[in-house]
């Protein structure tokens, strides 16, 4: 019986080899309650530092949140503290996830493409 070994590498191995990942002070927050208000959302993150911007994505048709949003802090340290404190916590009866937004370029170049 002949055994055939695959001749490809795991996608994550290739991705780590050819891309650069930069972390910043912007966070993505998912699985929020559909009844979360902007004040609730901003208040959830204000204990961790100065918030530059908070965006709660809304469904205009029904007038409530879509369950996710973005928060931008002044510094990356403040953002990391918020991730440590809130990621995987239950807020308003929902298990939320807080992640750093990453900028990935396949060619390793951070310059914006001219299209």
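^ structure tokens above, recovered residues below v
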């Amino acid at each position: 019986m002949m055994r055939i070994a695959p001749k490809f590498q795991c996608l994550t191995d290739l991705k780590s080899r050819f891309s650069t990942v930069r972390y910043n002070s912007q966070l993505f927050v998912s699985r929020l309650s559909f009844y979360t208000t902007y004040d609730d959302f901003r208040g959830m993150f204000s204990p961790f530092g100065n918030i530059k911007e908070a965006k709660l994505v809304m469904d205009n048709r029904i007038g409530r949140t879509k369950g996710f949003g973005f928060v931008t802090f002044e510094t990356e340290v403040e953002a990391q503290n918020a991730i440590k404190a809130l990621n995987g916590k239950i807020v308003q009866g929902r298990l939320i996830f807080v992640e750093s937004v990453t900028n990935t370029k396949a060619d390793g170049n951070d310059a914006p493409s001219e299209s």
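The radius of gyration is 19 Å.
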